[in-house]
Design goal:
The complex is a heterodimer of chains A (about 200) and B (about 160). Chain A is α/β, with parallel strands linked by helices. Helix content of chain A is about 40%, strand content about 15%. In chain A, the strands form 2 sheets. Chain A has a 6-stranded parallel beta sheet, sandwiched between helices. Chain A has a two-stranded antiparallel sheet with strand order 5-6. In chain A, a hairpin with a 5-residue loop joins β5 and β6. The termini of chain A are far apart. Chain B is globular. In chain B, strands 2-1-3-4-6-5 form a 6-stranded parallel beta sheet, sandwiched between helices. Chain B is of the alpha/beta class and about 160 residues long. Chains A and B meet through α3, α5 and α8 of A and β2, α3 and α5 of B.
């Protein structure tokens, strides 16, 4: 597969680059990212947010970032999830946690349910009415907001932008996966969450 | 009707570290008292579902949050509450304004009154109804009971008395 396709990055490649530079940050993944993350990372500070409440991962991460100000927290959200809860951008910027990074995987579809276009998908919108999540994040008060369309640029800049003073917003344009998009929980939350909380204290 | 200073003193007894809220007109009268309380931080949300998720993140990180919303916000935020209280098994606690309970003639036919308690029953969230200032100490009692039983819990605060 061409990782630098004009239509966006391969999700696994984009996440692998993110993982390479996450250092000791918490990574909360949801939806398509949650499907792939356990194959990329097995870090004690990973929280694969499955089962989830769609749209709430950034808020969950905000609470954690406020509780643990010395701990960097990276949330990997879907664009459909982000659209479901845009107000949370304003909530986050009001609190302005310097340790908070919100990554949005933008593929224009609800991948898990069968790749139906979101309302923000260019494929269903008038040409002169495109949605730009990075501009929305900036307008909501994020001082650091970035968009990456190709893997090489993302790999080159990931290390620095992941360490910027938060809250940071990063949009990664990715192509939808072509195969089975369903998500499997990596295990019961009643077992995973205590392990994650223990890792937070170490 | 429910003085903010009295409520804030109760929250101090409960060791609340953060209030995550979207107030209604009764709960909103507590704002000054909450802002003055040195032991807690007030977090404002744009929609009630966020409140449960933020509180869950705070709880995961070792803090002791409280959600404060109106019952209409409870309806909106059901999935977020379900996820954090039952999937993640984080027993969160909330104070929920019970709109017009004490002045049912002001909003005749308000279905918030019809559905609030059945919804909490359906979500298996034990609740304590409070109908007067004198009953406010029940907040602490119910909170401690839920804490001991490791369950989520809610206070339904009857509103609407002039």
């Amino acid at each position: 597969m061409n990782s630098n396709s004009p239509a966006g990055m391969n999700l696994v490649d984009a996440l692998t680059a993110l993982n390479q530079f996450r250092n000791q940050a918490v990574v909360i993944s949801t939806m398509g990212a949650a499907r792939e993350w356990p194959r990329i990372s097995n870090h004690p500070l990973d929280l694969v947010y499955v089962p989830s409440s769609m749209g709430q991962a950034p808020a969950l991460g905000l609470g954690l970032a406020l509780a643990c100000p010395e701990q960097r927290v990276i949330i990997i959200n879907g664009d459909g999830c982000m659209l479901m809860n845009l107000g949370t951008l304003v909530t986050i910027s009001a609190e302005a946690p310097s340790n908070f990074v919100l990554v949005v995987i933008e593929n224009g579809v609800y991948e898990v349910t069968g790749r139906q276009p979101t309302a923000a998908s260019p494929s269903i919108r008038p040409v002169d009415s495109q949605v730009d999540m990075v501009e929305m994040a900036r307008a909501a008060g994020f001082k650091n907001a970035h968009r990456y369309r190709d893997l090489e640029t993302w790999k080159t800049e990931a290390e620095s932008v992941l360490q910027e003073e938060g809250p940071v917003f990063i949009c990664l344009e990715c192509v939808p996966c072509s195969g089975d998009a369903s998500i499997t929980s990596p295990g019961p939350m009643r077992e995973r969450l205590p392990r994650f909380q223990q890792a937070l204290t170490e | 009707m429910y003085p903010g200073e009295q409520v804030t003193a109760l929250l101090e007894q409960m060791n609340i570290s953060h209030v995550v809220w979207l107030p209604d007109s009764e709960l909103g009268t507590w704002e000054e008292a909450l802002l003055r309380a040195p032991f807690l931080k007030l977090i404002r949300v744009c929609r009630e579902g966020e409140a449960w998720a933020i509180a869950a993140g705070l709880k995961m990180g070792g803090k002791n949050p409280l959600v404060i919303i109106q019952c209409t916000g409870l309806f909106e935020s059901g999935d977020a509450m379900r996820n954090v209280c039952f999937d993640l098994k984080l027993p969160l606690f909330a104070i929920i304004g019970y709109r017009s309970y004490l002045a049912q003639d002001k909003l005749p036919g308000d279905t918030a009154l019809k559905f609030t308690e059945p919804v909490l029953d359906a979500w298996e969230v034990p609740y304590q109804l409070i109908k007067s200032q004198q009953e406010l100490p029940l907040i602490v009692e119910h909170y401690q009971r839920c804490l001991q039983q490791n369950t989520p819990g809610a206070i339904l605060l009857a509103e609407g008395k002039v």
